[in-house]
Every structure is written in C-alpha cells, then in structure tokens.
Amino acid sequence: MAASARPELPPRQRGEDEPGSSMSFFDHLIELRRRLISAVAAIGVGMVVGLAVAKYVVNFIVAPMQTALRANHLADKLYYTSPAGYISLIINLGLYLGIVMAMPWVLYQVWLFVAPGLYKHERRAVASFITSAMLLFLCGIAFGYFVMLPQVLTYVIHFATDGPIQPLISINEYFSLILIVLLGLGLVFEMPVVVFILSLFGIVTPRFLLKNFRYAMLGITVMAAIVTPTPDATTMLIFMAPMVVLYFVGVVVSYVVLQRKRARALAEGDAD
C-alpha cells in the first residue's frame, strides 16, 4: 500500500505546479459578487472625486490648444456654444477622471478574483501582464499629450489662419478630439501586449513578424494617414515612429515568450 501511494512533490515543485486554492461554484459566485461591488464602489468614489477636481483639470486639458493658438498669434481662449456646454464638459471630464482613478483598484479586484485559481507561474505572468498593459497605455496617452497634440494642433491652426477666416474653438468639440486621439494612442501602445498574447498561443513568432515587416509597415503608414488629422509628412512620421519601435519591441517580446516556452518544454521532457 505504501508503494502505491502517490509520491509527494518537492516543496518548490509543489508551489509551482499546484493552484493557490480550490473553491466551489457558489464560492466563486460569492467572491465575484464581492469583487464587482468593490469595483463599482471604487468607480463611484472616483467619479465623485473626479467631478470635484474636473474644473481644475480643464486647464491642463486645454493647455496644448492654448499653446497652438499663442504660437499663431491668436487669443488663447476656448468657447462653449450652448448654455449647458461648460457644465456638460465638467460632468463628462469628471466621469472619465473617476474611471481612470478607479482603474488600478478595479484591476486589483480582477487580480484577487482570478489569482486563487492560478498556478504560481501563471500568477506572476498575469501580474506582469496587467502592470505592463497599464504602463503602456499611460505611455501612449503621455506621447499623445506631450508630443502628438502640440504638433497637430499647431499645424491645424496655422493652416486655418492663412486667410481671412479666424478659428473659434469649441471646448466640447476640442475635448472630443483629444479624447479620441489620446485613447487611440493608448490602445496603439498596447501592441507589445497583443503580440505577447498571440505569441503565447503560438499564433505569431519572431520569424513571422520579421518576415512580414513590410506588410506591417504598409499597415502602419495607412493607419497614420487615417488617424492624423493633418496632411503633412512630419506629423505622419511622428505618429509612425513609435509604432515602428513598438513593432520591434513586439518582436523581442515574441522571442522571449518563444524561448521560455522551449525552456519549459525541455524541462518537462527531462522530468518525464
């Protein structure tokens, strides 16, 4: 009987190969309910705080537009064109700020829900994935605000002032524009994360990415031509440069994933 008993794994191997805990179906439902309530409450609190500080953040939001107007020797004022236009802006901005402020806590709740059912190496991978996705998204927003918007807005205003027509910038339309630009660039900067997922499932490899770079370059050029609101080559190049860099970062990420998968396969083969 002793010989037929299941041999115990060494402590290190057991820690790597066993999930953190086991829960019943109803326990999962209760835990999901707890995490959802906590996430929704955090978003609610974030929105209240966002509404309280929104009117101060407006100055930060309009700064690129004011810089572009001053660069073209125009009055650095933006306008609202409906009686409730400014209040609508404050409410929308406050709601977005609340979601952004609550997002780390929301992701933490997602992590607390999924972590107990994961293996130790999977928990490390998911934690790195969430952290990397957040950092890349913030880098995309920062690139859009500090690099992309000043170039685009200065050119657009300069192009519009080469004649008798003067711009009258609506704050609500301007907010919609920068929201699209910043969110779009934040999503574009997620390219390495997408490559990581595709490489993890064996859909792409470093060799595949390098071999098809010319097609990727064509796609990047078309995307830059569509997204950038100006026809000049300089703005397109500014938009294309980080996308090309991110593509090669994705190649490196794919290579690392492939090497780790091979190392894990060899280790499992040696164990057998």
Describe the structure concisely for a colleague.
With 272 residues, the chain is mostly helical. 78% of the residues lie in helices and 0% in strands.
Feature tags:
2 domains, 272 residues, 9 helices
Structural features, described:
The longest helix is centred in the first third of the chain and has 47 residues, at 25-71. The protein has 272 residues and is mainly alpha-helical. Helix 2 packs parallel to helix 4, helix 4 crosses helix 5 (171-188) and helix 6 runs parallel beside helix 9 (233-271). Residues 1-17 have low confidence and may be disordered. It contains nine helices and no strands. The protein has two domains: 24-188, no CATH class; 190-272, no CATH class. The radius of gyration is 25 Å and the shape is flat.
Largest sheet: none
General shape? flat
Structural class: mainly alpha
List the total number of helices. 9
Give the low-confidence spans. Answer: 1-17
Cα distance spanning the termini: 24 Å
Write the layout of secondary structure elements.
Elements (H helix, E strand, L loop, with lengths): L10 H7 L7 H47 L13 H30 L5 H41 L10 H18 L2 H10 L5 H6 L1 H15 L5 H39 L1
Helix pairs in contact: 2-3, 2-4, 4-5, 6-9, 8-9
